[in-house]
């Protein structure tokens, strides 16, 4: 009969679920090896500022919080290199996260006036971003370029407004996909959320521009000079762009 101290995991988010093992090994020096498998849900503070190209570091802190370090000294049975190699073998890599590195740290933690020995496993993972690039980022760029093309295409302002409203609906659909993946409690919004907000504002300004032009055309007798100036400015921009293309073609 032997005694096993109770190991606590500071980052656990639920009750420990483990499978009791009845097997152990004892060598000639009196060293006892006892295996215990755990299944748990842990908490981790995420920094999603660089989403979806972010890397996260999560810790698992194993300690015996009721015994001082003079009585029990916890140490990892494997070095960081060996634990890292084993983790690459057993980690299931077909999910959203890609395992990068595992480090083992032997440290002392304080619980009030009690100093306890602890082993910290620092896990580094990176998010697989190819899904977000293909489904969210590239379509968003394509919609923005399409909006620019509609702005300089031939057509009435009313037709342009109708096309741009359709683009805004598509951007809203993409933002819903992104919203499901982002934590709602983040104090620092990710860069991709700011990018979506900027693109949405530009699309709104494009609609307002065409709506204002349509309003001026409806009030043409009153604002004929202003409409003429706007049309001249657009024709001038178009002519300059055509001249630049012709010059490059000659070169």
Automatic annotation (TrEMBL):
Similarity field: Belongs to the ligand-gated ion channel (TC 1.A.9) family.
Domain Neurotransmitter-gated ion-channel transmembrane, chain residue ranges per copy: 158-227
Recorded GO CC terms: membrane
UniProt superkingdom: Eukaryota
Neurotransmitter-gated ion-channel ligand-binding domain location: 2-128
Compartments where found: Membrane
UniProt-listed PROSITE patterns: NEUROTR_ION_CHANNEL (PS00236)
This protein's UniProt keywords: Ion channel, Ion transport, Membrane, Transmembrane, Transmembrane helix, Transport
Keyword Translocase (UniProt): no
UniProt keyword Transport, yes or no: yes
Topology in the lipid bilayer: Multi-pass membrane protein
Gene3D superfamilies per UniProt: Neurotransmitter-gated ion-channel ligand-binding domain, Neurotransmitter-gated ion-channel transmembrane domain
GO molecular function: extracellular ligand-gated monoatomic ion channel activity; transmembrane signaling receptor activity
Transmembrane segments: 130-154, 191-212
InterPro entries in alphabetical order: Neur_chan_lig-bd, Neur_chan_lig-bd_sf, Neur_channel, Neuro-gated_channel_TM_sf, Neuro_actylchol_rec, Neurotrans-gated_channel_TM, Neurotransmitter_ion_chnl_CS
UniProt protein name: Neurotransmitter-gated ion-channel ligand-binding domain-containing protein
Main location: membrane
